[in-house]
Write a structure and sequence with these properties.
Layout lengths: L3 E5 L4 H12 L5 E4 L10 H6 L7 E4 L2 E4 L1 H11 L10 H34 L4 H9 L4 H13 L4 H20 L13 H15 L12 H11 L2 H6 L6 H23 L2
Parallel strand pairs: 1-2
Antiparallel strand pairs: 1-3, 3-4
Bound molecules: glutathione (GSH).
Amino acid sequence: MKNVTLYHHGPSTCSQKVRMILELKNISYESKIIDLLAGEQHEDEYVKLNPNHLVPTLVTDDGVIIESTVINEYLDDYFPGIPAKSSDPLNVAKMRLWVKYIDSYHPQCGSITYGIGMRNILIQKPKDEVDQEIANIPDHIKRKNRRDLIDMGLDAPVLIEALKQTELLLSKLEKELENSDWLFNNSFGIADAATLPYIIRIEQLALGELFSSSKRPNISLWYERIKNMDIFNNAVTSFIPETLIGVLTKFGNDQKDRVFKIMENK
Ligand SMILES: N[C@@H](CCC(=O)N[C@@H](CS)C(=O)NCC(=O)O)C(=O)O
């Protein structure tokens, strides 16, 4: 068995999706936490592994792998255990198309997380510290968006667009789950793992009503099925810092009427 080390952060969406596949396939790994709130993703040693200053990063005897979707495919290809994708090539193609879409949604999740939740923590910090945090972000579009989200919160155009895209994601997911318990596979797999963290984040931001059993029953049942899997605790719950999430949920609750109004006027 290969030695596996995962550099990750507890509540990070992309880290959760990799941990779900590690647990599904029962792969033991060394856990190295990169504290994103402390800026450890920008430290020289880590940037040598992940030049994008992002988590997760997987290191095995074979080498270093970045990008959560690529990591999950690698894990499924090279490790025995429960397969995380269908044996039908057409379903695999559909799974890859879905995951590509989910990856394109990922920045929108960053916008709702920062615009609704994290912003309210950051505006209490000294301005110099926040400016430095923003300056450390290598991607210039992300830097500009982060600044707008912190300065404008719910009035930031990038957040309004992210809420619209979130509504679209939920509608697409509800439809995909109409005739199947799992996404493009007959059991939990790569597409489910890729999607789950965004549902968790929407719930953490106090917006879980968007997939209540009456509003979007297919998502609601799918999410329940996942929460009932034994691996959910090891991959997700045990890594969620209750205090931070409690704060995100509080800010989400405070603003949810306005958020729902923005979503309705899409
Ligand atoms: N496409 C990348 C995205 C990774 C990503 O955005 N990671 C976030 C956490 S979910 C991160 O490290 N953020 C740190 C930062 O923005 O400074 C992947 O799938 O691995």
